[in-house]
């Protein structure tokens, strides 16, 4: 195994839950403001997962005060304290960009039964 691959594997996180597009997750982020550090929770639907080793990332979308907010987060980033799986969604797509156009009840994702 070459040196870069070895370093990459050492930096990857193994404590993350398995989730996919359509799932609702709570992402606990470490926010540094000056010398203080706090944890901020960002809860929303996963609309995209980009796999690829250490470069893996995922996009979480939520609606806050009627405005859609999306956050692209590196999966193995040290600013992520932890990720909680809130619920699994039943979707048939891997990229849920169509949710950007929808509002209200039509933007909901059906829950997966029996998980």
Silhouette? globular
Termini distance? 38 Å
What fraction of residues sit in β-strands?
Answer: 35-45%
Give me the count of strands.
5
Helix content: under 10%
* Radius of gyration computed on alpha carbons: 16 Å
**Which stretches are poorly predicted, pLDDT < 50 over at least 5 residues?**
none
Strand and helix map with partners:
Elements: H1 3-11, E1 24-33, E2 36-50, E3 57-64, E4 67-74, E5 80-87
Antiparallel strand pairs: 1-2, 1-5, 2-3, 3-4
Give structural notes.
The chain has 115 residues and is mainly beta. Helix content is 8%, strand content 43%. The chain contains one helix and five strands. It has one helix at residues 3-11, and strands spanning 24-33, 36-50, 57-64, 67-74, 80-87. The chain has a five-stranded antiparallel sheet, with no helix packed on it. It is globular.
Feature tags:
115 residues; mainly beta; five-stranded antiparallel β-sheet; 5 strands; 8% helix; 43% strand
Short description:
Helices cover 8% and strands 43% of the residues. With 115 residues, it is mainly beta.
